[in-house]
Amino acid sequence: MSIGKNIKKLREIHNLSQKELAEIAGVSDKAVSTWENEIKEPRMGTIQKIADHFGILKSDIIEDKKDNVTSIRSSLAHGNDSVKMPLLGSISAGVPIEMIEVQDLVNVPREVGETYPDAFLLEVIGDSMNKIIPEGALALLDPTVEVNNGDIAAVAVNGYDATLKRVFKHQDGVTLEPLSYNPDHQTQFYSDKDMDHCPVSIKGKLVWYMAPLNIKF
Questions:
Q1: I want to staple 191 with a disulfide (CB 3.0 to 4.6 A). Which of 34, 58, 148, 173 is the partner?
Q2: Using an 8 Å Cβ cutoff, are 71 and 215 in contact?
Q3: pLDDT in tens, 144-178
Q4: What residues act catalytically?
């Protein structure tokens, strides 16, 4: 596929309009249209910005993708450019993250693995963050990296219900914000009083993610 077709496919995977992708890339929606119609090509800096936003490689956008390629990360399956990171399972209600055993080892880019040696992977279940991360993605979470306001993190509510949300800390509590096209997902605020009987604890900051393996370019 061409750069324009790869960009269009990426946009469709995340259910984004041309205007929404344009906001991510810092361009006009007309510019996105010209890319997808192969009238113009985006600058390399813009491609890098898009790749960084979605946690993919710039080459995933630039390179010609054949129909038999089943993953934008398939190139990581072998070779010296990757390292193995533990996959603990999924972010699922009812099971504390600390109690989930390693289910598999997954290849990630060597640079990512060496930057976050203490991180672990969890499969994203549900659509509460699908504006940013599609369901089925593998989220890399690092429990040693500080979570600042606006960061996305895995959060356990009352010790059990692990969830991936954007986090905002306040003097009197914490806000967990979904980033979803589904209106059923609502922002939740937990006051200090709430957390006396329903503690909220951060299990790891989202530092990278891998798109679902069933995505085809």
A1: 173
A2: yes
A3: 999 999 999 988 888 766 788 899 999 999 999 98
A4: 128, 165
H-only helix segments in the chain: 3-13, 18-25, 29-36, 44-54, 58-62, 110-115, 194-197
Q: Give me the half-sphere count of Cα atoms (radius 13 Å) on the Cβ side of residue 91.
A: 31
Q: Coil, strand or helix: which one is 5?
A: helix
Q: How far is 113 from 117, CA to CA, in rounded Å?
A: 6
Q: What is the Cα 60 distance to its own chain's centre?
A: 16
Query: Exposed, middle or buried: residue 175 (CB in 10 Å: 0-12, 13-18, 19+)?
Result: middle
Q: How far apart are CA 197 and CA 195, in angstroms?
A: 5
Can you say whether the dihedral through the CA atoms of 42, 113, 13, 157 is positive or negative?
Answer: negative
> Among 171, 183, 132, 181, which residue's Cα sits nearest to residue 153?
132
Q: How many CA atoms lie within 13 A of 145 on its CB side?
A: 21
Q: Tell me how far apart the alpha carbons of residues 58 and 50 are, in angstroms, rounded to a whole number.
A: 8
Yes or no: say if 153 and 88 are a contact pair by the CB < 8 Å rule: no
- pLDDT per residue over 8-53, tens digit each? 888 887 778 899 899 889 999 899 999 999 899 998 889 888 887 8
Record the tokens describing residue 137, joined without a space. Answer: 């993605």
Angle at 125 between CA 81 and CA 202, to 5 degrees: 80
What are the residues facing 84 on neighbouring strands? 107
